[in-house]
What does this fold into?
Amino acid sequence: MSDALIDSLTAAVQVRPDDLPLRLHLAELLVSAGRGGEAIGHAAQVLAREPGNVVAQQLMGRALAPAAPPTPPSAAPPAPQPGSAQPGSAQPAAGPAGVDWGALEEQFGDSVPPRFARSSADGEPDQVRGHEDRVFDVERATITLADVGGMADVKKRLEVSFLGPLRNPKLRSLFGKSLRGGLLLYGPPGCGKTFLARAVAGEMGAAFLSLSITDVLNMWVGSSEKNLHDLFESARGHAPCVLFLDEIDALGHKRSQLQSSMRTVVNQLLTELDGVEGGNDGVFVLAATNAPWDVDAALRRPGRLDRTVLVLPPDRAARAAILEFHLRDRPVAGIDLDQVAQATEHFSGADLAHLCETAAEYAMRDSITTGEIRMIGQADMLAAAREVRPSTDAWFATARNVAMFANESGEYDDLAAYLKKRKVR
It folds into this structure.
């Protein structure tokens, strides 16, 4: 009976699209029937004509709210008393005025550290402690190299120099292949160096510990060196572990260009990479930088960061995969990913994410203006591709000078070959 009434009202609204009370009545029935997605469009059209319509606003809120499954009366728990805790409950406790701290921590976890250290499902801590109760976040990577779009040359290099010997200990022993040393990923910003490092950790089934300059530097003399030692100790205690040194040029800058206080930090980093005080067995060091020419030469010596991999902007197939990833949860229709990928040559992964955001803004702006919700289409994607400019151009302009005039040892031959192929002048 309800469905028949909804169908009749839908037909009536099509005949009388400006009858707002009729449209609101239809939206009310749709929400009650659990068809909130259809109700949103009708409420939006009412709000486009009457932005202050309280009934339409309430219906929009009800339509957007997630539906909660009904609880059988017999299974309903007794109502908790104010200030009481439920024994055995795994739900995060609400804070003052009903604040859901768990939801807030999940929403802002990238910028605000959690209030408490929690244990994972297998009982192991998600965080490890160094000396003096320093706490470092340790991840369990859930992605592998199969989740990395494109980058066939990078994956091959990783397999030969890093993953292959790790998976084949007998073959490694036969050829005398050592796993000592680390891998330096370099290239333009936004091309997935950090994502690639996490994928390597997932491929190895190892823990992932990321180090940034803010984890190390401290204003007090000797504290930065101690912080660095604590972090390496934490990685050793959590082996097998991939230790990722992000922006290594900031932490391991050329000592000839540094003040004495920072030179001691670089010295400490060299000591930790050598594993003088504690063996680095099971600790696999990956580093990333946008400026490898600023990294101290001692860090590039054998046994340290002695292998380099150039991470370039994604190729056409990888761009299509990245675009599909960033559009997966958005309302899209009729998008030709291959055509958009062809129009975004030299775009980094971050540029492609920004392109999808821009296309979504176009569609959302039109939906707000017209009151008719529409999908993100091919025209939006191509218009965004014309507006967003590749951020890699500035990096390659700098890299060109290095490849041409500072490549005496041949360490940038792969970069020079790419620039020649790209015909960067």
Q: What stands out?
A: DSSP finds 18 helices and eight strands in the chain. The beta strands are 127-129, 135-137, 139-140, 183-186, 207-211, 241-245, 283-289, 307-310. The two ends are 72 Å apart (CA to CA).
